[in-house]
Design a protein that fits this description.
Number of strands: 22
Number of domains: 3
CATH architecture of the largest domain: 2-Layer Sandwich
Shape: globular
Distance between the termini: 47 Å
Strand order of the largest sheet: 8-7-6-9-10-11-12
Helix content: 25-40%
């Protein structure tokens, strides 16, 4: 009889999932929820699978301690507490459980909205304390109010459905969703966040927290709302600066704030909690019995599939764990994901079609993983949901994206190359391309009319400018004054005296303020900050 598979569970799971783990005759389970570091390192030594939640940091020391680790399973969506590159280097498969709290988060959003409009928490507290002042709690109806949904992904479109059920007028801003998707969800498409703010009574956010969305609800955006508007954030802390909204709540420009996620948790800004027009919950968007059951069942199923040799549904690092036999395809899959991420960060429009062009030797290979890798890289940048190689095509369908392949085996400028063209419904286009040298060295080679051989990694600046003297010197001087070191600098131009583009890799990220200031350097047309 073969030895049992040792499973270490360090995150609290629903009882139903624990029963499944313990009942499996192939598993030997150690359950130590929220254990200390010493216990974690002790039991990690013999574990073949580690099932975690946010309380467990799976860093290099834990990976090294887990000499027999084959799987790290995150019983939630976020994997920020896992050193994924190092786990990948060690051949450990990382999986997670996305999309199981979508309905819970959407329902909490509506709960916060109803609580604000009908003063439910205050009325409850009054009755419990012996009061009965009915007139003090006269509220408002949702019917006929205009709700603006920022991010029409899985949670956002559920909120749209619920809001329509209350006879609200639904508007939405999402630059990465095709026009027909708005129609499918009964939401009127609005072209900018500021325009959305001017048109609605309620502004609710359903976006991931990243460089693009952090601080996206600026004071200017919030002030653009009609006086007496309402704001909800049940997505991620940091989407707006709490000090800004506190000021607007005090002035009455914002009538109320419903919030489940904060800039700092669990020690919430006391100035926010001191306001009577703030309705808050302690980050409980996923805290429903149904969501926890679904998460528990999913993590169990994924661990079973991983050890039975099946295809897991939610791999986080699949392309790098050696499952691809063709080394050339493997490297082009990695390159494609980087090109997709690049396109998602600089596109600026909603593509309706993507053409994948495989050139040279790669034209005769199986392209399925390369195509999925590009889509994963792109869609991961534009949706508020987990994106895997299994579900990425469903995401593409939701976004209204079609994809086609084109092979060009006669291409002879290089041994092989990948070019991707994104096309929008109004004639917009973006081309990105790359090369793999010696089946291992990846390079960014194409952005629209500009050609490079740039390493696609780390912090990067893409600077488009008029092809005039002095621009390179001005850029270098500016970055030097800001203490930003240049790692590499690649320059290309479309024609002499026309336009040029520089791909600048830096040792550290350029701040928001410095990014804006750079845009004012003479002859510079556009600057994108990118991280690959």
């Amino acid at each position: 009889m073969s030895a049992k598979i040792k499973i270490l569970i360090t995150g609290a799971l629903h009882e139903s999932a624990l029963k499944q783990f313990h009942a499996n005759p192939k598993f030997d389970v150690e359950y130590h929820p929220d254990c200390n570091r010493e216990t974690l390192l002790k039991f990690a030594k013999d574990a073949q699978a580690l099932v975690t939640r946010s309380e467990t940091d799976v860093d290099k020391d834990v990976v090294d301690a887990g000499e027999n680790l084959k799987v790290v399973a995150r019983a939630a969506v976020g994997v920020g507490n896992i050193d994924i590159p190092y786990a990948t280097e060690k051949g450990i498969l990382v999986i997670n459980c996305p999309g199981k709290n979508t309905n819970s988060a959407a329902e909490l959003t509506m709960g916060l909205l109803l609580g604000m409009f009908r003063n439910i928490p205050q009325a409850h507290a009054t009755v419990m304390n012996g009061g009965w002042d009915r007139h003090r709690f006269t509220g408002r109806e949702l019917r006929g109010k205009r709700i603006g949904i920022v991010g029409l992904g899985n949670v956002g479109h559920r909120v749209a459905k619920f809001a329509r059920g209350f006879d609200m007028d639904v508007l939405s801003y999402d630059p990465y969703i095709a026009p027909q998707i708005f129609e499918q969800h009964g939401a009127k498409r609005v072209g900018s966040l500021k325009e959305l703010a001017t048109k609605v009574d309620v502004l609710t956010f359903h976006v991931p927290l990243n460089k693009e969305t952090k601080g996206m609800a600026t004071r200017e955006i919030l002030e653009a709302m009609p006086k007496g508007g309402w704001v909800i954030n049940a997505a991620r802390g940091g989407i707006f600066k709490e000090d800004d909204i506190i000021s607007l709540l005090k002035s009455g420009h914002i009538a109320g704030l419903g919030v489940d996620t904060f800039e700092v948790e669990p020690k919430v800004n006391p100035a926010l909690l001191a306001l009577s027009n703030v309705w808050c919950t302690p980050h409980i968007g996923a805290s429903t019995e149904e969501a926890q059951i679904a998460i528990g069942e999913t993590v169990y199923d994924q661990v079973v599939k991983a050890f039975e040799g099946g295809v897991v549904d939610y791999p986080v690092n699949l392309p790098q764990v050696g499952v691809i036999q063709d080394q050339r395809v493997k490297r082009y899959a990695v390159l494609a994901e980087k090109l997709g991420s690049l396109a998602g960060q600089i596109g600026g429009f909603n593509p309706s079609h993507i053409e994948m062009s495989y050139r040279g030797d790669i034209a005769g290979s199986d392209h399925s993983l390369i195509r999925l890798s590009f889509l994963k890289g792109y869609i991961s940048r534009v949706v508020n949901d987990y994106v895997s190689f299994v579900n990425v095509e469903k995401h593409a369908t939701k976004l209204g994206l079609s994809v086609s392949d084109r092979s060009d085996p006669q291409f002879d400028s290089y041994r092989s190359a990948l070019k991707v063209t994104l096309a929008g419904p109004e004639g917009q286009t973006l081309q990105v391309g790359g090369l793999v040298f010696d089946d291992q060295i990846t390079r960014l080679s194409l952005i629209n009319d500009y050609y490079f051989e740039a390493e696609p990694s780390g912090h990067m600046l893409l600077v488009e400018n008029e092809d005039k003297p002095g621009v390179i010197g001005d850029l270098g001087h500016f970055l030097g004054l800001k203490g930003v070191n240049i790692a590499t600098f690649e320059l290309s131009r479309n024609r002499r005296g026309g336009k040029a583009m520089a791909v600048i890799r830096t040792d550290q990220e350029v701040s928001n303020i410095d990014h804006q200031e750079m845009g004012r350097i003479r002859n510079i047309l556009k600057i994108h900050r990118v991280f690959l």
